[in-house]
Amino acid sequence: MPTYQAPIRDYQFILNELLNVYQYTDLKGFDEFDSELVDAILQGVADFTTEVMLPLNASGDLQGCKLEDGKVITPDGFIDAYQQYVDNGWATLTCDVEYGGQGLPEVVGVFATEMKSSTNMAFAMYPGLTHGAYAAIHAHGSDELKNKYLPKLVSGEWTGTMNLTESHAGTDLALLRTKAEPVEDGLFAISGEKIFISSGDHDLAENIVHLVLAKLPDAPEGVKGISLFAVPKIMVNGDGSLGEANTLHAAALEHKMGIHGNSTCVMVFDNAKGELIGEPHQGLRAMFTMMNQARLGVGIQGLGLSEIAYQNALTYAKERIQGRALSGAKQTEQKADSILVHGDVRRMLLSQKALNQGARALMGQQALWLDQAERNVDTVKAKQAHAIAALFTPIVKGFVTDQGFKACVDAQQVFGGHGYINEWGMEQFVRDCRIAMIYEGTNGVQALDLVGRKLLSDKGAALMAWSEMVKSFIEQHAGNDEMQPFIGGLMKAAADLERATGYIVKAAQTNPDLIGAASMAYMQILGITSLAWMWARMAATSLEALANGSDDTAFYQEKLKTAKFYMGYWAVQTGSLARQIEASSQDIVEFEDELF
Q1: I need a labelling partner for 2 at 20 to 30 A (CA). Which of 164, 211, 343, 489 fits?
Q2: Which residues pair with 27 in a beta bridge?
Q3: Is 77 helix (H, G, I), strand (E, B) or coil?
Q4: What is the pLDDT of residue 286?
């Protein structure tokens, strides 16, 4: 069975030193937690995930969920594990204290989510989807709706889902057919079929609150006619007790490549009673609250699986002996050297290591921007943080899951033939991670959103605001000789990003189709450059710690050497991506359909 060591020291470095989150006295609620409390929480989550969730990962994958008599049965051990999860209060971490939450910021919660994703992604999805439903109701629901649903969702006694996709529509929500008919007392009769509904039915909680996109009878055409409804599996009485079963059910379980421990359902709503969330025909806005929450979570899944895959590949590389180093035997006491001596194995492992630590820092930064957008008392600063977080949402979802999946494949490759065999766990990580590139908007959609909506619609305002941060950092460290290897790599990547941006902005004016052709490569450029920014910042933080006489020398030296590798291996890729955009985008657009 795979093993896992929660990267607590890395979390502490990001929170305490890189982001210095405890300095933000202008963010509401930040004065109510400190490093001692956060360390205790992260260690508690680490203990739960390694001791309870990880042992159920492989068995849950092999057993999967079952649909019997119209009810979903989760794998053995999931019910008890979920009850422990609820009893320990892990569901409440970042939720509003008014509804029973602990009120911790997202910048802390993001690392708890990583540990859950590393150890058992399928299990973690049950509370993960619940948090998305909580966020949508919290942001857009009436006080009555909040009081009705949020306390139970926050505690984890009830769970939540997102019901968006229909078989004929996919990403194009303008085509959805699910109907909502007004009936009585503010209730609506919801009818339709939704597919790919994660956690759609299960036996972990006594009730499930489905958030369903549907159209009212007077709805205008297209996405402007979408409304969002809360549709509980079991109706809730006025006193908060559970009443009769609603007229909805899981008609089937999807047969999937991975995440077998999570119930991915076909859901049928047959005049099921639901309540409107927000205003009529404004469901798209509420949906994006769910989606943006989910997209950050999916990005963390890509990171979490990449991390556990890397850890196990590294252990295997140290223990597996095969061949000798090209320069001669390194471990002469053995009949062969460990495969860690081989250059390509080292390349794969270093690539994973640099990606994981850089992505983890970016996830922390993204979560902090989200906290600033929600909690900053300065509305101007809050608005800017919101815009930058929106810009980077496709990066944390699309870029990180793209590269996280490739890292899982590399980790599997380190094992050679054993990586293809079930007992080592690598093939499960590859299968589970693959979905992260698809759901909550495929990565091609993320890239198109990045260029078409986030870059071009606001004339690049958010990108320019972030670019100013990068330039300011470069100027701040320009005179530091020790920082030059890192500043140089960041400057080159930033220049390639600027070049690619200029090309797309100009070319899209005469040929909008080029946006789609260039968007994936552009998302990779921005992703690589943003991690170069994080690595340069981590290098500066590490140099400062060493200059101040830190006794954790090995940790900071490791950071500096990994940063140097990132600049030489990852950051240099932006040049070829920029050239690819310029050289092939027009060819992609103009290639005749009949020649495909």
Answers
A1: 343
A2: 376
A3: coil
A4: 81
399-425, pLDDT tens digit by residue? Answer: 999 999 999 999 999 999 999 999 999
CA distance 266 to 264: 7
**Cα separation values, 422 from 74, 412, 466, Å:** 21, 11, 44
| E strands, 401-491, in order | none
Torsion sign over Cα 217, 201, 367, 36: positive
Say which amino acid occupies 316: Y
Cβ neighbours of 151 (radius 10 Å): 17
Q: What is the mean pLDDT of residues 149-167?
A: 95
Q: Which of 197, 199, 233, 231 is nearest to 214 (CA)?
A: 231
Verdict on whether the full-model pTM lies above 0.70: yes
How much is the pLDDT for 2?
A: 95
Burial of 575 (C-beta count, 10 Å sphere; 0-12/13-18/19+): middle
Positions marked active-site: 440
Contact (Cβ atoms closer than 8 angstroms) between residue 60 and residue 77: yes
Helix, strand, or coil here: 418? Answer: helix
Residue 417 CB partners (closer than 8 Å, separation 6+): none
The rounded distance, in Å, linking the Cα atoms of 507 and 584 is 13
Q: Measured between alpha carbons, how far is 51 from 54 in angstroms, rounded to an integer?
A: 6
In three-state form (DSSP H/G/I as H, E/B as E, the rest C), the secondary structure along 307-364 is HHHHHHHHHHHHHCECCCCCCCCCCCCCCCCEHHHCHHHHHHHHHHHHHHHHHHHHHH
At residue 184 the predicted structure's pLDDT band, cuts being 50, 70 and 90, is confident
